[in-house]
Amino acid sequence: MKLFYSLCACLVLVGCSIFDPEEAIPGFVSVKSSGFDIAPNQGTASNQVTEHWFSINDNILGSYDQPCVVPVLENGTTRLRVQAGIKNNGVGTTRIRYPFYQPYDTVIHVVPGETIDVTPVYEYFSNLNFDISRNFESGNFLVSHGSNEGISESTTNQDVVFEGNRCGALILEEGTDYLLVKDINTLTLDAGNTIFLEMNYSCNNSFVLGFYVTTGGIAKKTPIITITPTTSASFAPTWNKIYIDLGALALGNPNASGHELYIECVQNEANSPRIYLDNLKIVRWD
Questions:
Q1: Backbone phi, psi, residue 280, to 5°
Q2: Is the sign of the CA dihedral 4, 8, 13, 14 positive or negative?
Q3: What integer is the mean pLDDT of 56-78?
Q4: What is the mean pLDDT of residues 230-246?
Q5: What dihedral angle (degrees, nearest 10) is formed by the CA atoms of 210, 215, 217, 219?
Q6: Tens of pLDDT, residues 19-45
Q7: pTM
Q8: C-alpha distances in Å from residue 196, one per residue of 106, 135, 248
């Protein structure tokens, strides 16, 4: 019997050492903010990176909202890769790694229990095509269409301009309730290519962004996204940045001969809706 109890005690001690090993102490990577470097002919440096996707020595750690502190179990000299995450189409439940921003790669020295501050600086890949002509600096490209009752103009009012000298202003005065404007320029979106429309905007009323898609000489009105207000004020802009995925639109219309962007607004949240737009940038693989 004594032998039996001695064997049991040994098994308990051995079991503890097997199933309760001493936990490793991680080091930490802290990201409080990120930067963005722009090259000539790439348009605005404005970006809306909301999260970062981390890898250590090619092992994925996961995504973290900015600012964040990420535990790292590897010790010593370690290769860190951080990729920029965005809200695809402005929706928080459809977050993705933005395909056009290069990953930020660096080497860090991880010490258990210590925190390393890292500030990722992103930039575009080099093999991209940029259409940055829709920045309103040369004037307004959105013209009245259909039964439009609104005002469409390029304004130099520095109280509302996001950056540069001008931005677009779409206005429904009190007593009017429908705005419809479209781009005077026609785009061609190639099916199968990854294509995003980047845009800075401020609005006190919801509006729809879509495209008239022309196939076989017939233009079909195709809404893409409804954008909700950034502010309740009528004249004080609160600017935001959105990335709108146009790949599905192109893929769904492979024989289209042209695409014309439109903005549509019905008086709803505001008595006098104001929509301010800037830096409409179309980015795709070259």
A1: -70, 110
A2: positive
A3: 96
A4: 92
A5: -20
A6: 455 678 999 999 999 999 999 999 999
A7: 0.90
A8: 28, 16, 10
